Amino acid sequence: MDDAVSRRCLVIAQYMLEHRATVRQAASAYGLSKSAVHKDMVTRLPRLDKRMGQEVAALLKHNKAVRHLRGGEATRRRYLGLQSNSDGV
């Protein structure tokens, strides 16, 4: 594995753990695609650092378990915003 890719995996994993970030948030922060970040975290990271790989895997599992809640909250905020905008018109 390329040294730059190895460093990128470790840096992104550290970011995700420190900020409890999702794959999408990490991809946005580092200017990468979600696919690249996911591939790094699931495939490459466990080969580089087994302990960190397990921690990130647990974070990804948690994020997957609560994604329906985040989506519902985003929808609620969206419609509250639309409702307040239509009140002023």
Average residue pLDDT: 90
Total helical segments: 4
Tally of domains = 1
Largest sheet: none
Number of strands: 0
Question: Roughly how much helix do the residues carry, as a percent range?
Answer: over 70%
The gross shape turns out to be elongated
Structural class: mainly alpha
Give the H and E element order. Answer: HHHH
Distance between the termini: 58 Å
Work out the radius of gyration: 17 Å
Low-pLDDT ranges: none
Strand content: under 5%
Note down, in words, how this protein is organized:
- The protein is mostly helical and 89 residues long.
- The protein has one domain (3-87).
- The protein contains 4 helices and no strands.
- Helix 1 packs across helix 3 (34-48) and helix 2 crosses helix 3 (34-48).
- The mean pLDDT is 90.
Q: In a few lines, what is going on in this structure?
A:
The chain has helices spanning 3-19, 23-30, 34-48, 50-87.
Descriptors:
89 residues; mainly alpha; 4 helices; 0% strand; elongated
Write the layout of secondary structure elements.
Layout: H1 3-19, H2 23-30, H3 34-48, H4 50-87
Helix pairs in contact: 1-3, 1-4, 2-3, 3-4
